[in-house]
Amino acid sequence: MHNNQPNESQKLILAEKGTRFGHNIIDTIGFYFIVFLHAMVLDEWLGIIPEGGSDWFVFYFFFLYVMYHALFEHFFGKTPGKFITKTKVVKNDGSKPSFMNILGRNTARLIPFDPLSFLFSDRGWHDQISNTYVIVDKKKE
Known about the structure:
It holds the Pfam family RDD. The chain is mainly α.
C-alpha cells in the first residue's frame, strides 16, 4: 500500500505556509543574485548575450532555477532560505530524497500557478508530485 502521509513514528512537523512563503522570498532573492552574476559574466565578460536578449537565455534561466533548488536540496536537504527558516525537504518516511526525486520536485516548480496550489493545500503541487514534504528541522545546527 502506498502511503502519502509522513510517517507518524518520525514525528515530522510540516512547515507552516508563512514559513514556506518566507523561505521562498529568501530563495528568490538568492536565485536572482545568481542570475545577475551569470548574466554579468555572460554579457559583460564574455559578450555572448545578443542585444535584446535571446531565447536560449530563457531556457538557461529555467535551468538555473531548477538547479539552484535541486543542488542545494540534494547536498544539504535545504536551500539557503530553508537554512534560515530551519526547515528541510524529506520523503514521507523522513529520509533524504534521491537526486532524481529532488530534480523532479524542482522541475515541477515550473508548472504554471504552482505557487497558487498552496491556497488549497498545505503542500504545493511540486511537493505532491514528488511525494516530498517540507518539515521543521529539529536538528541542532
